[in-house]
Specification:
The chain is of the alpha+beta class and 418 residues long. The protein has 2 domains: 154 residues, Creatinase/prolidase N-terminal domain (Creatine Amidinohydrolase, Chain A, domain 1); 231 residues, Creatinase/methionine aminopeptidase superfamily (Creatine Amidinohydrolase, Alpha-Beta Complex), CATH 3.90.230. It contains 12 helices and 16 strands. The strands form 3 sheets. It has a 6-stranded mixed beta sheet with strand order 4-3-2-1-5-6, with helices on both faces. Strands 7, 8, 9, 10 and 16 form a 5-stranded mixed beta sheet that branches. α1 crosses α7 and α8 packs across α9. The chain is elongated. It starts with 26 loop residues before the first helix and ends with a strand.
């Protein structure tokens, strides 16, 4: 696999546009890196081709994107044959747009596609049958029709049609996740820029986080500011306060925040496709001993994990530093999943590595230089209501990590104290 060049200097978030006086993101280099990784993964897989429906894999391989409302309808797909160049089927006029504005794709490889909008058009209409027939012909042209076809995600009706027409289908999602887990310098810069945008949003939140504001108002503020800053998608903003902190609901409501309560937020957005997952916890106006104690423990678990991470360390070694489900008052690790947690960041919110006591103790993976992932800790407070939630995004370097989430989180932040 192609390796990354992780910068030895602090991770840069230099701005949104290219300039002539600084080295910033080189999008041509980024496209070449991603396609090379996908091709190397295909070569190593034993498949003759990858057929991709996961819209992050499509973006990684074809360097194209359309809005999420259409991207998740299982209508866009891409075909990469061994020794060939990517072919893309996209929603209606998007295919013509790619032929005009995506010169890295051969024009003849950009097709309009329609399979059924996740069943809204029934398979009996014949769209899937004709699509598989076309794909099979392209596989025959490439000399790989008798070799397995790797598919990442698929509608059952399409899978059955592939099998009916004699194609051998295997899973390639694991291969594509392998390809995507080591980030290039350009990817790291985009991830750092995305985090820097959230740094600024947290300052905006601190300025308004006082009694009387509602959780949904904070969500609206975060969405507005991120889109003003240049975000291409705000995937979600969790806003959790008061008694909703414990247990953790992973959402937001219209609840009004009251004096002395805790509130925590998770901001998930993407800049040029590269995502954040970025929690911060605040006490509003004042804090209590129980809140401060919970925060100190959550911060200790975070700091222990950060100190342990370097290339060659296995994910189980990190997971063992975190409390068990029973330690935080939950029945089992499935119930506690996502609370003491690590997950890769990239074009998707959850990439490799995944770090959790649920899976890592039995199936660890090695941490490598060039991985970028988020670390999350959670601690319920002894008052039975409050809780601390902290998240840091880290880039794995040759001798440890660099943290790219910069809004202060070393100790519990009290907003608008009185």
């Amino acid at each position: 696999m192609t390796t990354t060049g992780v910068p030895s200097t602090p991770m840069a978030a230099p701005g949104h546009m290219g300039v002539d006086y600084e080295q910033r993101v080189d999008f041509g280099r980024l496209r070449e890196y991603r396609l090379a990784r996908a091709k190397e993964s295909l070569e190593a897989s034993g498949c003759g081709a990858f057929l991709l429906f996961d819209f992050y894999n499509i973006r990684y391989t074809t360097q194209t994107w359309i809005g999420g409302a259409l991207g998740d309808k299982m209508t866009r797909y891409a075909l990469l044959t061994r020794g060939g160049e990517p072919m893309l089927w996209d929603f209606g006029s998007a295919a013509r747009h790619h032929r005009l504005y995506s010169p890295w794709l051969a024009p003849e490889n950009c097709h309009a596609g329609m399979l059924g909008l996740r069943g809204a058009i029934a398979p009996t209409a014949g769209l899937m049958e004709s699509a598989v027939r076309q794909i099979k012909g392209l596989l025959e042209d490439a000399g790989v029709a008798h070799e397995p076809v790797g598919v990442d995600i698929v509608e059952p009706a399409f899978l059955f049609e592939m099998q009916r027409q004699g194609l051998t289908v295997v899973d390639c999602q694991q291969n594509m996740l392998d390809a995507r887990q080591i980030k290039s310098g350009d990817e790291i810069m985009l991830l750092t820029q995305a985090a820097a945008m959230v740094d600024g949003v947290y300052q905006d939140i601190v300025d308004v986080l006082k009694p009387g504001i509602r959780e949904n108002e904070i969500v609206a503020l975060a969405n507005k500011r991120l889109y003003e800053m240049g975000s291409d998608q705000v995937e979600a903003v969790n806003a959790v306060s008061g008694e909703r902190c414990n247990p953790h609901p992973h959402n937001f409501s219209d609840r009004m925040i009251r004096p002395g309560e805790q509130a925590f937020f998770d901001i998930m957005h993407s800049y040029n496709g590269y995502r954040t997952c970025y929690y911060r916890t605040f006490s509003v106006g004042r804090s209590t001993p129980a809140q401060r104690d919970a925060y100190t423990r959550a911060r200790g678990w975070m700091d222990a994990a950060i100190a342990a991470i370097k290339p060659g360390v296995a994910t189980d070694q990190v997971a063992r530093l975190w409390p068990t489900a029973q330690d935080i008052g939950l029945a089992d690790e499935k119930t506690a999943f996502g609370l003491q947690f690590g997950h890769g960041l990239g074009l998707a919110l959850h990439e490799r590595p995944i770090i959790s006591r649920l899976t890592s103790l039995e199936a660890p993976m090695e941490i490598e230089q060039g991985m970028v992932f988020a670390l999350e800790t959670y601690c319920p407070a002894s008052d039975g209501i409050s809780a601390a939630r902290i998240e840091e995004e880290v880039v794995v370097t040759a001798d440890g990590v660099q943290i790219i989430t910069r809004f202060p989180a070393e100790e519990l932040f009290v907003t608008n104290p009185y």
